[in-house]
Records
---
Amino acid sequence: MARAFAVFVIVISVLSRAGALVAQGEAGSPTTPPPAPSTLGPMSFPRPSILFAFRFLNPRAVDSMAKELNLSDAQKAQVTELINKLEEASKPKIQAQHKAAEEFAVALADPSKTEAELKAAADKVFKAESDLVAENIKTLNAIRALLTQEQSAAMKKFLEQRTMPYRTSIMPAPAGPPPSPSAKPAK
């Protein structure tokens, strides 16, 4: 039951992310209808997909990465090239993930589907996401290979800051002890 819920949350997240990516890629096209609203927005938690950890691997993040890692112009150009290649290589994988997630959502809504059929559809979604993660890891390792020892240390800090939601609680800790049960609120 918990796995089915996790898969359902993954599907919703995937559909939300894929819809955002499609909308982003086709923003200039006036004939494209807006994406359908999703149940979970782009900042919804928990985020079961680890793809979120790779959000810094996009062209818009190159400048901040270059600044924080103190990249040379040549390194920045190489990182930009790697990230652009990642974007191109990821497009068909994102489409495959989107298709698998849609198929899973349809299967999930079909009362005639067996547990085995639902698991097979979920495995297809996991495989598509795994392919995307592998592509991101390949690019991350290629970027790491370009770095000096000092830049590698800065990259470690850079990644720690950007993967914080996976290592700490989302909600901040309360600022003080809870009120005692005998304390009555002031009027």
---
Amino acid sequence: MRIRSVADWVRIAALSAAALVELSVAALADGPGTWVLDSNILVLNKTTGVTILSDTHGPEGGSVRIKLDGSVLGNYCDPGFEEMQFDWQFARDIHQLSEGDVVPATVSGKILRSQAPCNGDLAAVSGIWVWSGDAPISDDLQAQVDGDRIFTKIDQQHAWAGKDPHNVADQVFVRVGEPHPEPPLAYFGVEISFRGGGDLWYVYMYRRADQTNPGPAPGPAAPSTPSGLGATVSSELHVDRRGGDYDHFPVPNADPQACSTACAGDARCLAYTFVLPTGGQPALCWLKSSIPPATPSDCCISGIRTQTPPPSSTLTIEDGFDRKGSDYTQYDLPTSDPNLCLQDCSADGRCLSYTYTRPGARGPLPRCYLKSAAPPPVADQCCTSGARQ
């Protein structure tokens, strides 16, 4: 997907985000079976403190930041001129969409700093087309492009495939329908090129649907795994936690305890998912640097690593205050209860402070931010915060 002669960053934000909701690559299947989203968006290159897929700057600059829950928090920055932030909210879970679906979506944003000629307002978008690697964009979106003098025609893009999602050098650009390497993983990529030459790549990882339902799981695992690092790892039978992977390895004896122990012994690990063997493939252990949401599945056993809190420590409760920064994990909460966030922080020795955000403050759901430091409190009715004493 290529955009040329771009002069309007506002429309770049609205149009490029349409590519981010591609979540069906059945056309990539090499043989029987369909493809399903295996993890959330892949990180192709890493910037400290920022989860982005690519940040290849041309003279105009530009980057996109993606939250692991699948929502989009983006910053486009033209150095010295402007920076604007936008939030996308979708009426449906974008991970459950199929090719051809149209999902109502809204975008809101604000100018963080601006100098002429880059200031402006973000436009609302309704009806984002979900498309596969060899399918054209929707007629509605094409009409928007054709009716806008600053855009030329958007060309379709094909797909990526690769063996190792953590090693970009092993990835190979392929056309849709061509055989791709084993293991059965596929990447879908969309390229957006700006006038100055900067490229942004949005990439999703998929696996075959028949790899996600290997049959009955073994008997219940132990409730938790203690470690010598003062950490405890829970065990969640029939639960998959997709995304946030920083490492994975085969488990020849198919023992989920080996995966739990590996997470308990690695300070980077906040969660794990053990995938049962199926179809001649060995069991796999996926270690995660975040805590993705739990999804019921017979494929897996998952768990969360918590650090033993220091003795005699308590957490303050600061209603109407935000503590910004120093997050080491964040996640949606099932109910609007700040005590859930407080309890999670209290149970994890790494957590020195927390912030709970109310529904609608930073997304439709309440959210918990656990922090490895104690930033100063700032008055804001969006939040309830606290810090260890």
